[in-house]
Amino acid sequence: MKKVLALLIATFLLSMGAVMLTACGGDGSIGGGQSNVEVLEYELNADQESYSVVDIGSVTSGDVVIPETYNDLPVTSISANAFKEESSLKTVVIPSSVTNIGEYAFKGCYNMTSVMLPNGLTSIEAHVFDNCSKLTSIEIPASVTSIGEYAFYMGMELSSVTFAENSLLTTIGNNAFSGCRWIESIEIPSGVTSIGKYAFSECLSLTNIEIPSGVTSIGDYAFDKTLQCNEKNGLKYLGNSSNKYLYLIGVVSQNISEVKVDENCKFIGAGVFSACYSLVSVEIPSGVISIGASAFKGCSLLKNVVIPNTVTRLGSFAFESCYELKSVTLSNSLMAIEENTFDGCFLLADITIPESVKSIGDYAFKSCDALTSIVIPKSVTSVGYRVFEACYSLKIYCEAESKPESWDDAWNYLSNRGNCQVTWGYNA
Fold first, then answer.
1. Would you list the DSSP string of 320-379?
2. Mean pLDDT throughout 311-331?
3. pLDDT tens digits, residue range 251-278?
């Protein structure tokens, strides 16, 4: 009887071992000879034809090699948060079968020193390598079309970022490389059209930057506190070998009184002339397409500004506290008047909102006490909170027949005494 019982127990244990081996390796090979493959965790994708790595499982080795296949199906993605804050992780090899790495996948892996990204990867999602503080270098494959926000944020030891030849990259997200203090040189691929705000801010060693001429959007403070610049007529620019003056980033001295922006400039960066208290005149050339947030904030002697018709964006707080500003000609391509744009322009008496404008932000004209009349065209579909607060002399003429539902209920708030006077259905 005891012999029969022992035989039954032995048979049960052997069968359990076979089940465990099948669950780990799928084909009984324990991951094709890679010692850690069998203990990563996977999930069958919705297509039922591929797998994602979803967790580190019980891996204890710091060196992870992700297999191309699992259960005879390809491994095509690394899920969001898969290796998040795994302090034991040191190196990762990702196979060419992987085309997507989810958000936060390696965030906070502060001991990781090396990762090999595969050809075929189409995007690097938000926060993927956020706070991987010991990662020293990265090569972005040609197949990657976008780098998400905070993708390499605070890469404290990251000193080398290279892009493979014939890169398909078009977008670099907000804060993507912010805080990567040891990067000295970066050549942004020629196909990039959008660089997000703070994308390379606090890159304190960055002395060699190539921004492609095809860029159509650069976010506020994208290159804040970088070291490189090309100086001309008291102004500081970034650019490339064919256009050194693409992006205006600052002034040599805040005591500057007259400004003539270079004719090849496309972008005036955020805060460029902020607190230039002696600035009395500025000439902005046709060709500039964007003026960043707080660009002229606090320029208290500036009186008149003409914004060329090529400008499509005027950032928030752009002319805040320009106390002497009397007249502004806006671009007829401008899409929005952002929050607090003219806040505190006490003497502003003449401004026309072009029909290209779709929205007006909160407090956009706050305390423009000299403004006596303004026409809001039908094109404006969104008006924010207390746009005309403390504009005590103002009468508002709206081309719309009545208040659109998308306008804030307090859009025409004047003070605790009531609201600004409004005429609806205005037709000049």
1. TT-TT--EEE--TT--EE-TTTTTT-TT--B----TT--EE-TTTTTT-TT--EEEE-TT
2. 98
3. 999 999 999 999 999 999 999 999 999 9
Q: Give the CATH superfamily of 243-428.
A: Ribonuclease Inhibitor (3.80.10.10)
Q: Residue 5 in 3-state DSSP?
A: helix
Residue 85 in tokens: 């804050």
Give the strand pairing for 247-251 and 230-232: unpaired
- Two tokens, residue 33: 């000879």
Amino acid letter at 41? E
Spatial separation of the C-alpha atoms in residues 201 and 44, rounded to whole Å: 39
Reply yes or no on whether the pLDDT at 8 is more than 80: no
CB 376 within 8 A of CB 354: no
Q: How far apart are the first and last CA of the chain?
A: 106
User: Partners of 123 in the beta sheet?
Assistant: 100, 146
Residue among 319, 288, 289 at smallest CA distance from 304: 319
Residue type, 349: A
Residue count of the chain, please give it. Answer: 428
Structure tokens at 340: 């607090």
Please state the pTM of the whole predicted model.
0.88
- Pairing state of beta strands 413-415 and 418-419? antiparallel
